[in-house]
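Run log, item B.
One chain of 76 residues. Sequence copied directly from the ordering sheet:
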Amino acid sequence: MKDTGLANVILEIKISRTSDGIFLTQAHYIENVLGKIDIFDVPPANNHVDMSLHLVKNKGDLVSQSRLLKQATFHG
C-alpha cells in the first residue's frame, strides 16, 4: 500500500480544505448525472440548511442504504 497524501475525492464526494474548515461537495457528480439524463435546464432548488448546526456522531441504530433508497423512492 502506498501513501498518496490527503484525499481529494472519496465516493464521489469532493473534499476541499481551507483555513475555515473542510468542505464536502458532490457538484461534479451531480453535473455528470444531469448530463447523462440531459436535464441541465432544470432550475436548482434552494436547500435551507441551518448553518449553526454541527454534525454529530450517530448514536442510533444503523440503517442500510437500500432501506433508505426504498423509503425515498417515489411511487406515482
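Observations after the first pass:
- The chain is about 25% helix and 15% strand.
- The beta strands are 9-10, 13-18, 21-25.
Flagged for discussion on Thursday.
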